[in-house]
């Protein structure tokens, strides 16, 4: 999906609540984001193929609500870049976990008085991708939030992300995680 005509390019804010854990030789990004929407709305955005097309870096051929294998297609390309994934756990509306490109991606949703606290745990197959992955998820979640708020900007993926602040976010997360 391309940006919506007449909508200004997304300019993401400062780096978010992102930290890194090192456990058993694995590197895990922990990214926390508050949403002014209930867990059921966030769950649907994380699992429904039509909603994923609004913000996620991939397309899914089925809902991510049942464990099992799935083929994800990378957004922003010609539709030929696919990757095998496996939904490991799907416990609506609080926990979604899947393997993807050698990573383990876990989304935890917690109700708050004003909406939902989403915590993303992305255990990386290649720790050298930490700042890239963090900048990418940051931008994706900015797009998701705008879409959920009713002011969509259209999915931003691939090289297009560089026109929407990804390069700045990447540099800032790289500085934050240096030596970590």
How would you describe this structure in keywords?
180 residues, alpha+beta, Alpha-D-Glucose-1,6-Bisphosphate, Chain A, domain 4, 8-stranded antiparallel sheet, 26% helix
Summarize the structure in words.
The protein is of the alpha+beta class and 180 residues long. The protein has a single domain (17-177), classed as START domain (Alpha-D-Glucose-1,6-Bisphosphate, Chain A, domain 4), CATH 3.30.530. It is built from four helices and eight strands. A hairpin with a 3-residue loop joins strand 5 and strand 6. Helix 3 (130-148) crosses helix 4. The longest helix has 19 residues, at 130-148. The protein is globular.
H/I helix tally: 4
Quaternary arrangement of the chains shown?
Answer: single chain
The secondary-structure element order is EEHHEEEEEEHH
User: Which CATH C-level class is it?
Assistant: Alpha Beta
Mean pLDDT: 92
| Basic shape | globular
Care to count the β-strands?
Answer: 8
Radius of gyration: 15 Å
Query: Structural class per helix/strand content?
Result: alpha+beta
Strand order in the sheet with the most strands: 1-2-8-7-6-5-4-3
The CATH architecture comes to 2-Layer Sandwich
Give the CATH H-level superfamily.
START domain
N-to-C CA distance: 35 Å
Largest sheet: 8 strands, antiparallel
Q: Which percent band covers the strand fraction?
A: 25-35%
Write down the CATH topology: Alpha-D-Glucose-1,6-Bisphosphate, Chain A, domain 4
Share of helix, binned? 25-40%
Structural domain tally = 1
Low-confidence stretches: none
Give the helix/strand layout.
Layout: E1 17-23, E2 26-35, H1 39-47, H2 49-55, E3 58-59, E4 68-74, E5 82-91, E6 95-100, E7 103-112, E8 115-124, H3 130-148, H4 166-177
Antiparallel strand pairs: 1-2, 2-8, 3-4, 4-5, 5-6, 6-7, 7-8
């Amino acid at each position: 999906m391309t940006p919506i005509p007449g909508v200004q390019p997304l300019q993401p804010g400062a780096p978010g609540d992102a930290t890194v854990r090192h456990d058993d030789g694995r590197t895990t990004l922990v990214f926390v984001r508050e949403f002014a929407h209930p867990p059921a709305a966030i769950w649907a955005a994380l699992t429904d193929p039509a909603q994923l097309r609004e913000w996620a870096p991939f397309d899914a051929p089925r809902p991510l609500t049942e464990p099992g294998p799935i083929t994800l297609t990378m957004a922003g390309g010609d539709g030929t870049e696919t990757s095998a994934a496996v939904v490991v756990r799907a416990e609506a509306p609080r926990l979604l976990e899947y393997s993807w490109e050698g990573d383990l991606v876990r989304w935890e949703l917690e109700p708050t008085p004003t909406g939902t606290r989403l915590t993303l745990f992305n255990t990386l197959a290649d720790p050298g991708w930490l700042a890239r992955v963090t900048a990418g998820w940051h931008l994706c979640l900015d797009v998701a939030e705008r879409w959920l708020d009713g002011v969509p900007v259209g999915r931003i993926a691939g090289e297009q992300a560089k026109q929407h602040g990804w390069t700045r976010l990447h540099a800032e997360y790289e500085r934050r995680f240096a030596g970590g």
